[in-house]
Design a protein that fits this description.
Layout lengths: L2 H6 L2 E3 L2 E3 L18 H25 L15 H32 L1 H16 L2 H15 L5 H28 L3 H10 L3 H30 L1 H5 E4 L2 E4 L3 H11 L2 H30 L16 H8 L1 H28 L11 H38 L4 H37 L2 H16 L6 H10 L4 H25 L4 H9 L4 H35 L1 E4 L2 E4 L3 H11 L2 H33 L5
Antiparallel strand pairs: 1-2, 3-4, 5-6
């Protein structure tokens, strides 16, 4: 259809007629009511984003001031919340890009998998406080005249709290892609790019989005540490809701802490309304089932976007320009190329050989560079670790045992309640609508902000921090299990469930033959990410500032936090080395086998 035909077409929307001028360069003409309520909300949202970007860019480019004075008044909270939200969204954008690239490469290439998965194991096992001193000093040296170094430090720390959960989820989804889908892509002759966009991304969309929500919660977890921290005798603080809460806790200002908690809840609800609820509502269309799963309510923000005349006008302009560009390219090609068949030259074989040779050189260079850096790093690390005594190593091993037991305990307790609850919620659209916003708020709220209240409750019950730190750890890691189980429950086929109903299977048989096998691959991802989150959470659950005092428990996390605060680099390096070795050993010996079981025995194949 030509643009002139499109321009003459009469478009009727909401019982009002909108006409386009019958020319090729036609323009959109708004109806009599120029701006609707939906347009006002869209304009306000765009204005807030622009204001936040301008404000935070001014903060990033400002003169270097490592300790920003934090205003604990109510009026300062909106700007602080906006700063924290923009840092989290920048970190999430980097996490999503990393997930799509690294997760896809690890799932599709055996060589890349052998390198990337152990690398991700190592990186996720290094807690943020472990590399934060070197990161801060390096970025400050790189940007000595501005606050860009501290801002990048905060973004990277939030990024490390988000990215691993998303990457493992995407990697697991690609590895468990049903055989029927792969055969369909082969029969249709899809290229790797079309297969990714038309089959693999839709299949993994549910898990990826739910884990994105959970990853945002993981980023919020270290918000206070990312925006306000101490390194030796130096303090660093940038404006944000995390630094607001850190200052309020250090001063014992109860009213400010309550205001900060309320502001954090409001921020989470706003992000859920404008971002996550619309995405979660949209992604339900990618459920793997042959029978529709019942009526699904649509997010309010999606309805607002659909009713906005401004959004419709933008869509029309984009489509019109694409159509014009397509016509111009088509006419140019037809005028330059004659209809006669041109002789073809076979360059594919030569180009393929060149590509293979180039990739061999690149692969060899990467291996040599990685081996050189690894040897150099091991040599430097050995020189630092040689300073410690044998008694120091024995204390570290003992502390590792305490933290390891707390991590396992938090995983067991999380699984006991999160698996049945997640499946029960995911089986009913009505329960999902009711529970989803509640779960998102609870999971997204930074658990360290609740530690003062939780500690008061634990001390009232007569529990010391040696036992209480496991429950503090549980406040954050339980959501990894619940969100992954819930995402897996959304992929349970209603057709299979109806088949079991016709067969008059008991409820127990349904759980053991359908529900648990269907969610098991997602549950494994939840266990792996929850374990990594528990190790990282040990640093803030075993070493807590409470009422002007530092309360610690026996554990490796407390040792790392104390070493980072005192700038004791040999003890810090030794603690991180032991943590990395323990986590990688457990991942390679236990989680890898469980992953293999989930991908081979519990695939969603027809």
């Amino acid at each position: 259809m030509y643009p002139s035909t499109i321009a003459k077409k009469e478009v009727e929307t909401n019982q009002e007629k909108t006409y386009f001028k019958p020319t090729f360069m036609s323009q959109f003409v708004f109806p009599r009511r120029y701006v609707s309520a939906a347009d006002l909300l869209i304009f306000m949202l765009i204005g807030a984003v622009i204001y936040g970007v301008v404000a935070i860019s001014g903060e990033w480019r400002g003169d270097y001031h490592p300790v920003t004075a934090i205003d604990l008044s109510v009026g300062a909270l909106p700007l602080y919340a906006l700063f924290s939200a923009l840092r989290a969204m920048v970190a999430y954008s980097l996490s999503l890009l990393f997930t799509l690239c690294v997760g896809y490469a690890a799932a599709k290439s055996k060589k890349a998998e052998r390198v990337l998965i152990p690398m991700i194991d190592i990186l996720q096992s290094i807690p943020p406080l472990g590399f934060m001193p070197g990161l801060v000093l390096g970025l400050i040296a790189l940007f000595p005249r501005s606050n860009l170094g501290l801002e990048l430090t905060a973004v990277i720390l939030i990024f490390t709290g988000q990215v691993w959960n998303m990457t493992f989820s995407f990697y697991s989804s690609l590895k468990s892609l049903p055989t029927d889908y792969q055969e369909a892509a082969t029969v249709m002759g899809l290229s790797w790019w079309k297969k990714l966009w038309q089959i693999e991304l839709p299949f993994s969309a549910v898990n990826l989005v739910w884990n994105s929500v959970l990853s945002m919660a993981g980023g919020w977890f270290f918000l206070s540490v990312a925006e306000a921290f101490t390194l030796g005798d130096k303090e660093f603080r940038i404006p944000g809701i995390g630094s607001y809460m850190a200052v309020a806790i250090s001063q014992g200002n109860t009213q400010a802490m309550v205001r900060g908690i309320i502001a954090m809840i409001v921020l989470i609800l706003v992000l859920d309304f404008f971002i996550w609820n619309p995405i979660l509502s949209w992604v339900r269309r990618f459920r793997v089932e042959d029978v529709p799963g019942g009526h699904q309510s649509e997010a309010l923000m999606l309805l607002i976007v659909r009713e906005s005349r401004f959004i419709r006008w933008v869509k029309y302009v984009i489509r019109r320009r694409r159509h014009r560009k397509h016509l111009n390219v088509k006419s140019a090609i037809s005028s330059l190329i004659p209809s006669a068949k041109l002789p073809t030259l076979d360059f594919e074989g030569t180009m393929e050989k060149k590509k293979i040779n180039i990739w061999k050189y690149i692969e060899a260079f990467l291996w040599v560079s990685s081996a050189t850096l690894l040897l150099w790093g091991c040599f430097k690390l050995f020189g630092i670790l040689a300073i410690l005594k044998f008694s120091d190593w024995m204390k570290l091993i003992e502390s590792t045992g305490y933290t390891f037991l707390r991590v396992l305990g938090s995983l067991v307790i999380s699984s006991i309640w999160a698996v049945p609850v997640g499946i029960w919620i995911g089986l009913s659209p009505k329960r999902i609508r009711i529970a989803q916003p509640i779960i998102q708020v609870l999971a997204s709220f930074p658990a360290p902000m609740l530690y003062p209240l939780a500690l008061a409750a634990l001390f009232h019950l007569g529990l010391n921090l040696n036992w209480g730190s496991m429950f503090l750890m549980l406040l954050g890691v339980q959501w990894y299990v619940l969100f992954n189980v819930l995402a897996g429950a959304l992929r349970i086929s209603n057709e299979l469930s109806d088949t079991l109903t016709l067969m008059k299977s008991s409820r127990t048989d349904r759980w053991w033959t359908l529900y648990l096998p269907s969610v098991f691959p997602a549950l494994v991802t939840g266990w792996v990410t929850a374990a990594g989150g528990a190790w990282n959470a040990s640093m803030v659950s075993e070493y807590i500032a409470y009422k002007g005092k530092i309360i610690t428990s026996n554990g490796l996390g407390a040792t790392i936090s104390a070493a980072a605060a005192a700038a004791d680099f040999p003890l810090l390096a030794a603690s991180l080395t032991i943590m990395v070795v323990v986590i990688i050993t457990f991942n390679r010996s236990v989680w890898s086998r469980v992953y293999s079981l989930a991908q081979n025995r519990f695939r969603l194949d027809a």
